[in-house]
Amino acid sequence: MRTNRSKVAAVSGLIALLAPACAPNPPAVVTPDTLPNGVVDADYSATLTVTGAGSPRWEVIAGTLPPGLVLRSETGTLEGKPTADGLFSFTVAAYPGPLPFAVAQASFSLTVIPALAADTVLPDARVGVAYYYQIPVRGGVPPYQLALVGLPAGLGFDSPTGIIAGTPVLPWEDLPLELTVIDAGQPRQQLTRALTLEIRPAPVRITTTQLSAAKLNSNYSAQLAAEGGLEPYEWRVVGGWLPDDLRLSRSSGAITGIPRSVGTVELYIQVLDGDVPQNTDTKSFTLTVGP
Questions:
Q1: What is the DSSP pairing of strand 254-257 with strand 246-248?
Q2: What residue ranges define each of the domains in the chain, with the CATH number in brackets?
Q3: Which of 110, 238, 279, 284 could form a disulfide with 270 if both were Cys (CB 3.0 to 4.6 A apart)?
């Protein structure tokens, strides 16, 4: 009986001695468990590691990497420049050296955000004319923060909406502006662009208020005048007609001649300026030829 008890005790001691050596190792874990977002056409880099596996070999075993990214087999580094936006899901595995079985694997979803962009061509403004334009912003993650530096007197900028509004008071040729846009994404994108704004002169306007009366068979001369826009001006009769033997000079705006009949006519005279696109102004006049 003593002999059996001694054997049992010896076996129990051996089991107790060997138990720690036979305990299973904790499972290998791939880190990090999530990947940072990428941005189209921006440099991207994230390195995967696995606990207790030294320097394993890495492979994508399911799903698809974002176009433009590669997984470096020897380092576990995911790098490159994404060329398309979207959500991409894939699974990677870590192999211990040349052995065919994976020591660990993990699945990821990687979001690639569109690159932040903004239109940099502003429509022309004009002195004395109300201006309203919202700068188009796309890509990134809204809401956006916008800043515009360099606007002249009469124009203001609303940062949350990107709206330029107001009425310019002075003409400018290629006025330099600087636009900054920041999005709300992670990673946060910032865009800075140089813009120019053309502020054209005030629209052309006929300043002549009335035509003097003419006398039958006598020399007549009246000078039409305009301001604003860009010279040279061009003058036209666009409604009604001049009395017989009176003519309007298209280049000078002078009405001259010798009227041969009495009466009163109503006519509409238009001026066109030399701007591109052209501006016009039209005004009605009454011309009386007396005896």
A1: antiparallel
A2: 2-113 (2.60.40.10), 117-200 (2.60.40.10), 205-290 (2.60.40.10)
A3: 238
